[in-house]
Amino acid sequence: MHRFRFILFRPLQLIPVLFGISVITFILVRAIPGDPARILLGTKSTPEAIARIREQYGLDEPIWLQYLYFIKNLLRGEMGKSILYKSQVLHLVGDRIMPTLNLVIYSVILALVIAVPLAAIAATKRGRIADHIIRLVSTAGLGFPAFWLGIMLIILFSIKLDLLPVSGYGSSFSDQLHHLILPSLTVALALSAIIIRSLRAGMIAEAASDYVQAARAKGLPESSIFWRHVLPNSIVPTINLLAINIGWLIGGTVVIETVFSIPGIGQLLIRAIFTRDYMVVQAVSLVFAVATVAINFVSDILSVAIDPRIKL
Amino acid sequence: MSITVAASSRFNWLPRFGRGPFPLYAGATIIAFWVIVALLTPWIAPYDPITQDLSQTLQPPSLAHLLGTDNFGRDVLSRIMWSSRIDLQMGIIGVVFPFMIGTIVGSLAGYFGGWVDAVFMRILDVVLAFPFLVLMLSIISILQPGLISFYIAIALVGWVSYARLIRAQVLVLKNSDFVIAGKSLGFSHLRLMFKHILPNSITASIVFSMSDVVLVVLAGSSISYLGLGVQPPTAEWGVMIAEGQNFISSAWWMTTFPGLALVLMAFGFSLLADGLGEKLGVRE
After folding, report:
1. Which of UniProt's keywords are assigned here (chain A) (predicted)?
2. B195 lies in a domain?
3. Which one of A51, A267, B80, B97 has the fewest CB atoms closer than 10 angstroms to its CB?
């Protein structure tokens, strides 16, 4: 019953956060000195266009009413037009979401493929030489700038070995996969450095718990203790760990999209900042923030649904 | 595979990583190295970091230019040395302001509780909802690209971690005997907060600030790499890597060495944070 209530009422806690996100993205554009209508339309705007945007956003009204106009437009799916691309910013974001989404998904999969076995080795060989090496490498990895790591991988795999493309995205699915190997590997290596340490600590704590002692006492071989008990129980914390780091992951993809010239939302954001295309900056930060909140929310619900031990 | 709960006693001759004084000393040595480089650069750097020498462009590492030259004939080693001043400065200023703001907010929220706490914690939730780098980039877009904007953005975004750490400690300490004793002696709120509770609650934040330096320096160099932080021709590691990216097939040294410098500095601070955490008994 508790569990049911949690899943029912947890969404209500999102309301203040979403409200705060909308306020910050609203302030973001209003904080720019100058006439908001000119800022939203660019310098070469006609008087009619300025009058239209003044009315649509209520720019002559007091600030709190302007905020309500902003929310009204937002709920109608209108976040304004890009100065540079001359189209609705939400369409722009929609067109570019797939490369970013693919990059995030491949990076997470690769990171798990790298981090879970290494954390398992470090946890099972605790205090031995393998453990020391894995911990040393992951601590050093924390300090690796992802953009530099990406360029080093380009030099190695694209220029010296000529195996993978230097940059770009590609059109067909397999072509896109081919183009995303290096960018995903870059993000995955950086992400692994972050998650290996907590994963190792989690596995060690799990291995010290009573049910593992019980399993050992009933004579279960160590390998099945690990595979059947320790590993499955480390999965929920791992999902949480990934969700907590989703903000970091999104930031990482913004930079990596620039390194590899991937036409995703991150690249859109960086170009928009350079061209002072504020509507796009506003929309992208809103989309990223809502995505972060949504992913953390799903992870919370998932871990409660999967793991009956979580106390509410 | 066997799972041993107690650490194995074999390989004791290895410098035991993550335990004892080894990470602390190694980290302190690396950071001391960078501080000395940063301080002495004006006298020991072999060349000027900005002056171009178009007869010496894209030279591979040699005795005259130990780490080679870039596309304007500038000495990569000298530029790396000058960069260390800016990146260290980014790490320090980019941590000090969030630290101060976070400490004040966390103390107030934890000490007074009630609506003060509720307001600050909701603001904190919202800041945390944004991806760190995206919020920083958005703030920089309102201001203008440059180092000052970076400092403002990091102060506005970075305080949340410190506020949370301090608040958690203050919540525990404000009910302890020495605070109640102080209260009954009629000490003011400010005196209790900053002279009695704060010194006892700040250790975790100090340890965290060491690993935060790594995040801040990486964020600063990433933003400079994107062209929104330190502006060329100033030498900064992220800027140098961005400039070198156009020459990766002909001049690998332009990107490789500045990155290695960045890695070494970050590694130093990570080790320092590890060692300090171990020594002071703080677990992250």
Report:
1. Cell membrane, Membrane, Transmembrane, Transmembrane helix, Transport
2. yes
3. A51
Number of structural domains (chain A) is: 1
Cβ within 8 Å of residue B82, ≥6 positions away: B41, B45, B49, B235
**CB < 8 Å to B238, chain A:** 145, 147
**Taking CB atoms and an 8 Å limit, are A154 and B248 in contact across chains?**
yes
Q: What is the CA radius of gyration of chain A?
A: 24
Q: Is B146 at the interface with chain A, CB within 8 A?
A: no
In a domain, B9, yes or no: no
- Residue written as token pair 């101060």: B100
* Residues sharing a CB contact under 8 Å with residue B80, sequence separation 6 or more, in sequence order: B67, B235, B237, B240, B257, B258, B261
Residue B164 domain-assigned (yes or no): yes
Q: Say if A142 falls within a structural domain.
A: yes
pTM of the predicted model as reported, rounded to 2 decimal places: 0.87
| Residue A296 falls inside a structural domain | yes
How many structural domains are present in chain B? 1
Cβ-defined contact of A148 to B255 (cutoff 8 Å)? yes
Residue of B nearest to A160 (CA): B249
8 Å CB contact between A143 and B262: yes
B4 touches chain A (CB under 8 A): yes
Range of the domain at B234: 30-39+67-283
Specify if A27 maps to a domain: no
Walk along chain A (312 residues) and give the pLDDT tens digit of each residue. 566 777 777 788 788 889 999 898 888 887 877 777 777 777 667 888 888 777 777 777 788 888 888 888 888 887 877 877 778 888 889 889 999 999 999 999 999 999 988 998 888 888 888 888 998 888 888 889 999 999 999 999 988 887 888 777 877 888 888 888 899 999 999 999 888 888 888 888 888 888 888 888 888 888 888 888 888 787 777 888 888 888 888 888 999 999 999 999 999 999 988 888 888 888 999 999 999 999 988 888 887 777 776 665
Establish if A311 belongs to a structural domain. Answer: no
Q: What distances in angstroms separate CA A147 from CA A18, B39, B209, one per listed residue? A: 31, 28, 23
**CATH number, residue B108:** 1.10.3720.10
Domain holding A181: CATH number?
1.10.3720.10
ipTM: 0.86
- Domain for residue B6, yes or no? no
Looking at CA atoms only, how far is residue B9 from chain A in angstroms? 8
Measured in whole angstroms, the distance separating CA B107 from the mean position of its chain's CA atoms is 23
> Using the beta-carbon criterion (under 8 Å), do A147 and B222 form an inter-chain contact?
yes
Count CB atoms within 10 A of the CB of residue A58. 17
